[in-house]
Request: fold
Amino acid sequence: MIGKYRWPRDVRCVCMLTVDFDGPSHEIGRNLRPLGINSWGRYSGRRGVPRYLDLFEKYEIPSTFFVPGFDAEYYPAVVKDIHRRGFEVAAHGYLHEAWELGDEEEELLQRTHTILTELLGTPPVGWRSPSGRKTARTMRVLKKLGYLYDSSDKDYDLPYMVRLDGSRLSDMVEIPNNTYSLDDFPWFKFSMTPASEVLAHWKQEFDSLYAENGYFMLTFHPRSGWGSGGPSRARVIEEMIRYIKQHEGIRFFSIRQLADWCLNNHVEFE
Ligand SMILES: [Zn+2]
Reply:
């Protein structure tokens, strides 16, 4: 049943904590050996992801982890653990391809799809572009592979139905992600903002979206360096969870859970 605020009944603001695994695939894809200064991505598999799993379990938060196919091959036990502990695993490129792709794109999407399906025994239904690159061809391939949602676009702050080749689809939804202010990457990579200020900023973003009965989706990278995998930055995530939980009418969703809701009520979404 559609509630008062376009979400399921009693939900005033949908909240999602999403994770881009971004392990050594990120460096391998750029022809860098993931050692020394370029080993940041290995922190994801060794420390960051296990830390997040414990944190999300502690607060009973459903979550979605976007995993490049190469990282699933590199850390199969970790990726299996994400799934075994009840969290969603979705696709995020093979070598975190952040560059323009030609005809090889279909094969790469298919490869990660097969890796994740064979590893987990169930196919992923969601995709997020590595670094935000995508084309109509990307969407055609994802649709053919049976994906239900994409979470890459920056052009809206509510879910909407995907348009492809002139048609509004009723079986695929866009769940936009805001990578300029609701993501750890710009703060820790570019502006080197202290974690305490990032927390204050995210609280302000949450307050605005909560007031609009919108949806609040944060994205973290469990890497060291520019990610939030380490203890002090992960603590910001914990403080954010506690802050959100003080508000009436919030509910945490995995993206799959929100996508299912939108698809079942697609006439309500643009
Ligand atoms: Zn990524």
